[in-house]
Automatic annotation (TrEMBL):
Pathway: Cofactor biosynthesis; NAD(+) biosynthesis; quinolinate from L-kynurenine: step 2/3; Amino-acid degradation; L-kynurenine degradation; L-alanine and anthranilate from L-kynurenine: step 1/1. Its cofactor is pyridoxal 5'-phosphate. This is Kynureninase. The keyword Repeat does not apply. GO terms for biological process: pyridine nucleotide biosynthetic process. Keywords: Hydrolase, Pyridine nucleotide biosynthesis, Pyridoxal phosphate. The keyword Translocase does not apply. Belongs to the kynureninase family. Catalyzes the cleavage of L-kynurenine (L-Kyn) and L-3-hydroxykynurenine (L-3OHKyn) into anthranilic acid (AA) and 3-hydroxyanthranilic acid (3-OHAA), respectively. Residues 87-230 form the Aminotransferase class I/classII large domain. The lineage of its organism: Archaea, Methanobacteriati, Methanobacteriota, Stenosarchaea group, Halobacteria. Its EC number is 3.7.1.3. Pfam families: Aminotran_1_2 (PF00155), KYNU_C (PF22580).
Length: 436
């Protein structure tokens, strides 16, 4: 990046109208990055669920396809980046976004599988029987942890210590500390970095300190922060983390997930051992006894899905070009702007913001709450604004900084204002089930 560029965090004044947003876009050092993506709609505000394809992601996928065509099985050793170590190499590339050493990061499995194997691993290694979570978690986290308890003959209702939110949106770190004070046999504190519904950004460093002060390990689900929020996992002593690659990393639907394991835990036998986690130097000796890799790679299970991994190579190159700190600056500016516009333009129609207003407590999306949020989400989609709805009343808006501008945010709010002012929600019905 040009160090003389204007700051990405310079948001426009909401009272300056659309002209102010357009002017801010002209000053934005990341404005040209949109051209590197094929954004499927004029107003794509759902990158916190699935990021769009980029030219670079498509190119790295095409290269693997051509290597498959030209090399066949020889691709495992003779490809431009040999397939045998591809997941580890991309872990090396991803590590700087996490503040981790290269050996501590690997691409593997799915997020849910990674929760299974890591929680299971540390339950096996510890004397305790409890895991601290919270009632705002994404459901898969609880499904996986409860399954691991059942596998060990532990009653999930006894093993799972659920910290309850006071407002149904956010969590205070002190409440996690209180939960640990009440239980002596906690093995792991497992929390998200960003809540999927409200967008609250938790203090990962503080939670890690709290866990360690009580003799527990600190693990995190980083699905809603990797690629839009910088992390410093190694320095603050996080024990392990998991994430998906299809949100802010823009690696495509069902892209291979990632995991981080602090080097202090290298050599531990994974709960779900598989041949791809074997020490690479002897993997093809075909020994029947498992020898774990001396790295995070030990928690790989089966052969990596190359076609679900390749797009990440290209998408990471874009993030490196932009710089994660610059991405974060613009993300904060965009969400600040969106919150200000909701206050100014939508509050009179029953909209409010359920996301923390302090930028240090906010991830990359904003939860706009409305009593008829599901209807509002459907009305926006019908008008070319891609959002999603989360019960009971949240419309999630994500102005992803690599391909969203300030004028986009202004336009989206104005479309929502028109929908509400015209009474268009009366045309819609609420429903349950289906993909939102």
């Amino acid at each position: 990046m040009n160090t003389d560029s204007p700051p990405a965090g310079a948001r426009p004044d909401p009272t300056d109208g659309r002209a102010g947003a357009v002017a801010a876009d002209r000053r934005d050092p990341l404005a040209d990055f949109r051209e590197r993506f094929d954004v499927p709609d004029d107003y794509y505000m759902d990158g916190n669920s699935l990021g769009p394809i980029s030219a670079e992601a498509e190119a790295s996928l095409d290269r693997i396809v051509e290597e498959w065509r030209d090399l066949g099985i020889r691709g495992w050793t003779d490809a431009e980046q040999d397939w045998f170590t591809y997941a580890e190499e991309l872990g090396d590339d991803l590590a700087p976004l996490l503040g981790a050493d290269a050996e501590e990061v690997v691409l593997a499995n799915s997020t849910t599988v990674n929760i299974h194997t890591l929680i299971g691993t540390f339950l096996d290694e510890a004397d305790g029987t409890k895991v601290v979570v919270n009632d705002l978690d994404f459901p898969t986290d609880h499904y996986a942890i409860r399954a691991q308890f059942r596998q060990r003959g532990i009653d999930p209702d006894e093993g799972l210590v659920v910290v309850e939110s006071e407002d149904g949106r956010t969590l205070a770190e002190r409440d996690v500390a209180d939960a640990l004070e009440s239980h002596d046999d906690v093995v792991v504190v497992f929390m998200p970095s960003v809540f999927y519904r409200s967008g609250q950004l938790l203090d990962v460093e503080r939670l890690t300190e709290i866990a360690h002060d009580h003799g527990a390990l600190a693990g995190f689900d980083l699905a809603h922060s990797v690629g839009v929020v910088p992390h410093d996992l190694a320095d603050i002593g996080v024990d392990f983390a998991v994430w998906c690659s299809y949100k802010y990393l823009n690696a495509g639907p069902g892209a291979l997930a990632g995991l981080y394991v602090n080097r202090d835990h290298f050599g531990t036998t994974p709960a779900l051992a598989g041949w791809w986690g074997h020490d690479k130097s002897t993997q093809f000796d075909m020994n029947l006894e498992f020898t774990p890799a001396d790295s995070a790679g030990a928690w790989q299970i089966g052969t990596p899905h190359l076609l679900s991994l390749a797009p990440l190579e290209g998408s990471l190159s874009i993030i490196r070009d932009a710089g994660i700190d610059t991405i974060r600056e613009k993300s904060v500016a965009l969400t600040d702007y969106l919150i200000a516009l909701v206050d100014e333009r939508l509050a009179e129609f029953g909209c409010s913001v359920g996301t923390p207003r302090d930028a240090d407590r906010r991830g990359g999306h904003v939860a706009v709450e409305h009593p008829e949020g599901q209807k509002l989400a459907e009305a926006l989609k019908d008008r070319g604004v891609v959002v999603d709805f989360r019960p009971p009343n949240v419309v999630r808006l994500c102005p992803a900084p690599l391909y969203t501008g300030f004028a986009d945010v202004w336009d989206v709010v104005e479309i929502a204002r028109s929908v509400l002012a015209e009474g268009a929600l009366a045309e819609y019905e609420t429903s349950s089930g289906g993909v939102t």
